Amino acid sequence: MTPLYRLTIAFSFSMACWAAEPVGLSVFFQNSQAAPIKLLGEHRRFLQEVDITVSSPPSGTDLGIQPVQQSGEFAGLNWNGVQMVEEDWRPDGAGKFTRQRFYRGARWMKNPSSFQLWPMNANGIRIGLPLFAFTGLDELRTPADDGFVRRFVARQIALGCPAVNNCTGATFIAQALVQWRHNQRAEHRDVFIPSAAAKLCLIWTEQPGTCREVPVTHQAVPATPFGYGFVPALSVVNPPANGSHYQPGEAVTFRITLRDRAGNRLHPQGSLPTLADVVSGADPAGIRYFNPSIIPTLYYALKHREANTSVGLVGPVHKLKVSNRVLTIPEFFLPQAPTATTAADGFTGLAIAVPSPLIQFGLLPANTPVPDTVTFTIPSDAEAGTYVASFKGRREFAGEALNRGTTLEIKVGTNTPAPFVAKTGNCNTCHEDASAFSNVLHGISDRRVCFTCHSSLEFEPDNPLDIRVHTIHDRSRRFDANIRNCRQCHLTTPTGPARGILP
Ligand code: HEC
Ligand code: HEC
Ligand code: HEC
């Protein structure tokens, strides 16, 4: 075989692999504006994540959600039945408070609906087949649903309230949110987007006359050194000093390596992109960092786009439980944030944000280099056992968006650790295949690490793990079980109230 011929075979083989793997498409319209997408290669594609938000301009007058009901893009929708379902107050970290009011029950929120994403040429003529998704109903999960998560809601955000129950002088924003994700039928919903497509037009059946446009361009496969997929990995940089396990007081450095599905690196060894490069889009790999501008809020709003990139360390695993700690704002800026302590919780939880919060909150410039390593110092009072490190992140690349994570075990203080005994389970009766933990939320299926980052935060009181999981399933009307049947998830009888469940 001549080298050229061999190369051609190798190339066409890799092209075939590229073409074989269908790719999910994520679209995000904020007041009809969507960032242009540079599609990569020839793939069958399916809708994976669709978000439409419509927000009123900030105003000094408290009009509830009227501004989005009576004017703007959603004024024509059927709002009958809408009502406020809950109110939330939290410190904004700058001495004031944010009040949010959440609304549900409007016809458009409850109706069955569907999306069609039409490829169009530059003249706005439809070409090819649409990407289709049936969004199902708000109040019932059915086998006909294409997506696993469906949250169609509205909220009013009041920023800068001087005190709880007092929003004098606050800034008010009304927002409607159509949020749908995790396609469970990707293999039946995938189609090619023709290379002549210059834009994609999203039609939602609640607004059949409205075409929300995303500009698209096409790039050939060799145009970037990496392709689709997001596979993070953690590795240990310094082996234990005694050669077998780490000791309390010892420092352990982990390296974060982010790759695409084919194993190509997304960043050079030694560094991750700077915050400036992520924000400006100069980072070609599409790695994302924390985005507070969308005001992400548990269950109701855009948590899946928050991209709060972080590394955790938790253990020993046989002592894990929901942390009692409330992490203060100053603690968040420490080299490692203590989410659980031996003194308060009987185990150790530590979290490090990437990039450092000093960069994220502007105390250091946005172009400060971001290393691909983080160092934890194991507290001197840490209990012996198995510890698990975790990483979670988000990548938005060439139309595909993925939240993914990874975990890595280490031993502390012993070579014969005790195992984790789960107090909750049965999750995979509903979370399987497309809705398995490896695909939804952070893309992490090792439930031991859930206890790491989910302690209460001064600025996010609903961060504890029990509140998070209870709230999601309680607010979802698509949870096809009784949330008050504790046994549905609890393998042992819980010893307290179900925090986060509405009365
Ligand atoms: C009876 C079915 C059922 C069981 C059992 C169940 N879940 Fe869920 N879960 C759901 C549904 C339905 C949703 C999606 C809700 C929505 O539409 O917003 C969900 C959503 C979630 C989400 C959010 C996913 C995302 O990407 O936003 C998490 C996290 C989660 N579940 C964790 C768990 C854990 C942990 C357990 C076990 C202790 C569990 N679930 C048990 C049905 C279930
Ligand atoms: C390394 C830190 C970390 C670990 C480990 C972690 N989380 Fe999270 N979790 C976060 C952050 C940060 C957010 C905010 C959203 C984001 O940035 O993804 C979040 C958000 C959530 C939400 C809100 C989702 C929504 O739609 O409102 C739930 C529920 C949740 N986590 C449950 C879990 C569970 C269950 C596990 C274990 C499988 C887990 N978390 C592991 C940091 C973590
Ligand atoms: C959808 C699944 C689900 C249901 C239903 C559920 N819980 Fe939980 N609960 C969890 C998860 C997950 C945790 C996190 C701790 C863990 O996994 O061990 C948790 C933690 C707790 C905790 C914290 C400490 C502990 O004992 O583990 C309490 C208390 C609790 N739940 C009470 C309840 C009560 C009471 C009910 C019924 C009214 C209930 N839960 C129903 C999933 C659930």
Describe the protein in words.
Helix content is 13%, strand content 35%. The termini are far apart. The chain folds into 2 domains: 205 residues, no CATH class; 258 residues, Immunoglobulin-like (Sandwich). By secondary structure, it is mainly beta. The N terminus is likely disordered. The structure holds heme C (3 copies).
Question: How would you describe this structure in keywords?
Answer:
binds heme C; 2 domains; mainly beta; globular; six-stranded antiparallel beta sheet; Immunoglobulin-like; 503 residues; disordered N terminus
Gross morphology = globular
Query: What small molecules are bound in this structure?
Result: heme C
Number of domains: 2
For CATH, the homologous superfamily of the largest domain is named as Macroglobulin (MG2) domain
Summed up, the helix count is 10
In the predicted model, the low-confidence regions spanning at least 5 consecutive residues are 1-18
What is the beta-strand fraction?
25-35%
Return the CATH topology of the largest domain.
Immunoglobulin-like
Mean pLDDT: 94
Rg is 24 Å
In a nutshell, what does this entry contain?
The protein has 10 helices and 25 strands.
What's the layout of helices and strands?
Blueprint: H1 3-20, E1 23-30, E2 37-40, E3 44-55, H2 66-70, E4 83-91, E5 97-104, H3 107-110, E6 113-120, E7 131-136, E8 147-161, E9 171-183, H4 186-189, E10 191-192, E11 199-204, E12 207-219, E13 231-236, E14 251-259, E15 271-272, H5 275-280, E16 287-288, E17 310-315, E18 326-327, H6 329-332, E19 337-340, H7 342-345, E20 348-353, H8 357-360, E21 370-371, E22 373-377, E23 385-397, E24 400-412, H9 450-453, E25 456-457, H10 465-475
Parallel strand pairs: 1-3, 2-12, 18-25
Antiparallel strand pairs: 3-9, 3-10, 4-5, 5-8, 6-7, 6-11, 8-9, 11-12, 13-14, 14-22, 15-21, 16-23, 17-20, 17-23, 19-20, 23-24
The protein binds heme C (HEC) (3 copies).
